[in-house]
Amino acid sequence: MEEKNFILNTGQGGKIGLMGGTFNPIHYGHLLIAENAYEQFGLDEVIFLPTGQSPHKDARHILEAEERMEMIRLAIADNPHFSCSDYEIRKESISYTYLTVQAFSEQAAGKELYFIMGADSLAYFDSWMRPDEISRMCTILAAVRDGLNQAELIPIRDFLQEKYGARIGFISTPNFSVSSRMIRKRIASRQSIRYLVPDVVEQYLEKHAVYLS
Q1: Residue 110's pLDDT is what?
Q2: What predicted TM-score, i.e. pTM, was given to this entire model?
Q3: What is the dihedral of CA 64, 84, 145, 25, to 10 degrees?
Q4: Residue 11 to residue 111: CA distance in whole angstroms
């Protein structure tokens, strides 16, 4: 596993997936989405991008960036086509997706960028900052999960394609219902999180007594 300071090496493959998120904490749902995107769309690698200051979430409930980053490192260490970047957590400003994609695009001449998100995020993509720029610079891959039916997303996809010229693909993932919020609540209630996160992440959480208060 290689950590990146967002600048891409010229020797890498031509299809790069960017997976942003709070990862508070990372869990098997995230990893399943990334692996299925890699396989189904022929990506050369997937780069995990933990957010610094998210424009959509209350920072009071988000673990320190360095701890979230360390759990990502642990979770993906045995996967050669996964890597992580501290680009967003090093920024002092809010992490807007269009600026992140722009930064990678400038360093990725001749490469194809794919931004990976949950299908629930696709439903409000139109309200993001500069969806037109995101659509111009990369292909959007939306993971169909959490009970969302792909047929229900077709009108949303068609709307975004017509309005922004967006290129949108659907990632088919196993029906595995888990969320970071669920994990935090289970930890706070002293319930098991075994089989919801990689063993190394569970061990990290236990060792550092994270999310207990």
Answers
A1: 83
A2: 0.89
A3: -20
A4: 11
